Amino acid sequence: MNFRRVIVLDLASLGVGECSDANRFNSVGADTLGHIAALDGDDFQLPTLNRLGLGNIRYSDPIVGLPPADDPIGFFGKIRSKSRDNSTLSGLREMFDFQSPTRTTSVIDSIVGLLGVHSILISNYQSYLSNQNEAEVIPVNTDDAGFDQLHQQVVAPNNGLLYFRTMGLQANNASGNVKGSVAALKLVDQHLARLMRELYSTDLLIITASFANDSTLDVTPTREYLPLIAYTSSSPEGKVLGIRRTLADIGATIGEIFGLDISNESIGKSFLGELK
Predict the structure, then answer these.
(1) Is 120 within 8 Å of 162 (Cβ atoms)?
(2) Three-class SS of residue 146?
(3) Contact 211, 12 (CB under 8 A)
(4) Which of 56, 172, 174, 261 sits a CA distance of 20 to 30 A from 183?
(5) Which residue, among 75, 1, 9, 73, has the nearest Cα to 256 in the 3D structure?
């Protein structure tokens, strides 16, 4: 598939169950999404995300309100952080890590500096994002403002990388406000339905999370598997992406799409070839 633009939606703090090394991070029993759904009860529904395959990620252990879709339209799986540092920014760095011929840099800057491809980052202040010197950073303080910017950028016929890191879910998870977390997820779901109608056939949408934070545990953040969903309107028939061993697979996929040399699989392995 000849993608010209990649849109990454980072649902920061959304985990989908304890990771294989959860014991090393005091995260045994962590399940951010599962616990939010269980605490909200039978009214918990995310129809757009479920149609994309969010429930299918947990087909063997279904989440309340998110049964596996019979015919998911997204490519779905789960992904984990490989970093020994489990922080709110370590996953973000890992996601976009890239080894250039001379130094370790980022996919965000590399596709601009080496290839002239536009990168736009929509987020509240994050030092890592602000330090991407080649990218355009659009500061926002709420998810409503962020989604407004995202829709404006998506309908414009531009190529490149478009990244949006949501804020509502992570703020409510951090404070233990389950009702707020549910509202934040439902807002995402509503905007996703609109976003999917706005996509061009040459767009690839990637939905993931750079870290997890289960408010029912005392540790922050929690070590969990993270959702991975890829969607393109040119191939609305989903398949399983399995378990990805590092968030850097996302950066490797973006790099391959825009022509970066990603032969060093120790950084990440692209899943572009699986989107067929």
Answers:
(1) yes
(2) helix
(3) yes
(4) 56
(5) 1
Q: What is the pTM of this model?
A: 0.95
pLDDT tens, residue by residue, 32-72? 999 999 999 888 999 999 999 999 999 989 999 999 999 99
Q: Which of 26-35, 98-107, 129-138, 197-206 has the lowest mean pLDDT?
A: 98-107
The predicted pLDDT at position 264 comes to 64
Residue type, 236: P
Task: Give the residue from 182, 209, 186, 193 showing the smallest Cα distance to 151.
Answer: 193
Instruction: Burial-class residue 85 by CB neighbours within 10 Å (0-12, 13-18, 19+).
Output: exposed
Domain ranges of the chain: 5-274
**226-to-32, 200, 249 alpha-carbon distances in Å:** 10, 26, 13
Class of the 5-274 domain? alpha beta
Residues 6+ apart with CB under 8 A from 127: 89
Are the CB atoms for 166 and 10 separated by under 8 Å? yes
Provide the 10 A C-beta neighbour count for residue 155: 13
Share of the chain above pLDDT 90, in %: 75
| Inter-CA distances, 248 with 128, 146, 253, Å | 15, 24, 9
User: In the predicted model, what is the mean pLDDT of residues 256-264?
Assistant: 82
